Amino acid sequence: MEPRAAVFDVDGTLVDTNHLHVVTWWEAFRQAGHTVPMHAVLRAVGLGSSDLIAHLLGEDRDRGRDAQLSAAHKALYGQYFDRLPALPGAGELLRRLHRDGWTVVLATSASGAELGALRRAIDADEAIRATASSDDVQEGKPAPEPVEHALELAGVPAERAVFVGDTVWDMRAGARAGVRCLGVLCGGIPRADLTQAGAEAVYADPAELLAHLGDSPLT
Prior knowledge:
Keywords: Hydrolase. Helix content is 44%, strand content 13%.
């Protein structure tokens, strides 16, 4: 059998962190004097820090304060590193795909200590071949580069890969990279938004995808 790659986003897809990001970004913005609604932050989660700030504050913001905002979010979010909760079925899904012969790669904007905390939460390192983190790419999602780099790490072409994510940014990145895309609802983004952005199918969470693996593109 030719090699196949299962590429996964992490935040909101495998680990239940999106609302932690919402609260900590909201607080970082508040401390800097910005009023940003939490629902707007949720819609922006999944973008890299610089892109998220630009998306929420606009191009006419004081860009000299971006690094301070990003550092404040990182410090606030870092308080949760020792108790990040995996989503139902996350580790089991990765281990099952690994047993079935899929090359499992993570594609995430997280890096460093944050990425380490996420991997500990998933608890399936034996199933994960590699990780494409924000340190490895010039442009984050929705650019295709994170997914394309994950495919390079897997040594698999786009036509033999599936990308699983929870945001419209994930779906757009996967579609631009030419891979089949699956969405999950556990990140808080509506089904219709994921479908419109390119999701071929949408599942509640990793556990539901695992339960329906036989009739999914990951069969």
